Automatic annotation (TrEMBL):
It is found in: Nucleus. The keyword Nucleus applies. Keywords: Nucleus, Transcription, Transcription regulation. This is Mediator of rna polymerase ii transcription subunit 23. Residues 244-268 have a biased composition (Polar residues). The gene is MED23_1. The keyword Lyase does not apply. GO terms for cellular component: mediator complex; transcription regulator complex. It comes from Nicotiana attenuata. InterPro entries: Mediator_Med23. One of its GO terms (biological process) is regulation of transcription by RNA polymerase II.
Amino acid sequence: MYYTCIELPKRITYFSCLNWYPTFFDDIAARLLPIIPLIIYRLIENDAMDAADRALQVYSTFLHYYPLNFTFVRDILAYFYGHLPGKLILRILNILDIKKIPFSESFPQHINSSNAAMCPPLDYFATLLLGLVNHVIPALNNSSKCAAMGDIANNSTRAPHGKIQATSQPGPTNSSEVQKPYYQMQDPGTFTQLTLETAVIELLSLPVCPSQIVSALVQIVVHIQPTLVQSSNGLHGAPGSSGQGSILPTSPSGGSSDSLGATRTTPSVSGMNTSNFVSRSGYTCQQLSCLLIQACGLLLAQLPPEFHVQLYVEAARIIKESWWLTDAKRSVGELESAVSYALLDPTWAAQDNTSTAIGNVVALLHAFFCNLPQEWLEGTHLIIKHLRPVTSVAVLRIAFRIMGPLLPRLANAQTLFSKTLSLLLNILVDVFGRNSQLSAPIEATEITDLIDFLHHVIHYEGQGGPVQASSKPRSEILALFGRATENLRPDVQHLLSHLSSDANSSIYAATHPKIVQTP
């Protein structure tokens, strides 16, 4: 439509009164917001740190209005972890509205510390984990808490640390959030997800190396039960209480006299004050210790692979240095009993406060594995590589206990399943190989349960789900067993003779002529 010279000024005056602008000018700010993070990514990627710092200095206030600024901060810290100078990290954190983010109280002083090489105290990491227990980990159901309270009321001889100080239920208050697992909470606006990702940002921003952070977290996990008990009641317990010894043994045998010796006690960890943790959580010491381990595994799974490698190294070190595995005076029977106590039913250790470093570390690894995406599970083999060479059935069982739960999860990832199974067979050869030299002879019948597990898991993988009467393993898996048995002792070969693809030597192969083939 064409306007006369008289009408045009009238229309301009009309639109100016309405503060109306053309669409391009009206949306230019919103269109520019997603571009600035891409520019910053490119600058950092090309080592233009000074230019990225200047860009953030100019646009940090503007980026407050970017709807994905929290995701941007988390992703850029994770993707370029280890390559960002401290000054740039502080500039990136300024993008966030600090008042609305639940950072730890001591976090600002740790990232602004003049001594960048000093790792924060254990109390900082423990408080971080407690926040995850209270706001991220799904709360235990009311029945378990009521049962715990009933047990305390009916059993006056139980140690005072079993009392529940708080009546409020920890965890998310939204019932729909409680029922969702973590990986289904995709909305970054929920307080649950915000708390978890804030903890991730804190750890990624600390000016210390991953090994220091992982070492601190693992140290908390290893000593969590005795630390909670001692900080709640003191080392000697409350007066008049029975059933709780004055010393907390770390030996998984629990009842042996030497496990109660002064040199085997687990003192409260220095630098960690957990005196009010139980009251702030509303759980018993036993419940809280398990949930803190679960929270630690979840938190580590959110961090970059550099942290995962350090976790495998630290976990292997703790297992190998455990005094009851390195003590040459221990008999095979004692070690077997110890492993069963620490691993097969770790709730025993939690109930009578004789938790073990190995039991806690294995629980941490399982919590960690459960939250890892499948494409990162191949890195889990590193922990077994650090444990080798395996020279005892006790360590063999620990390795199976660590990696065993992963195999059913890998049933649909044939290559990774085969690699993991091959790794377990290799450590089996380490102990029961033809050329293995053990300090004491071990009968093959000692590992019949491990053979049963291997039999079941390869049928599970062949079926692609729960084992049925018609389940058959894949021929490639049977060939893998065949190659491994060539290096085993004859008595162990006999236990695996049914898992062979040779119909002349295997009753199983002869009765299952149509073994599942890979298409």
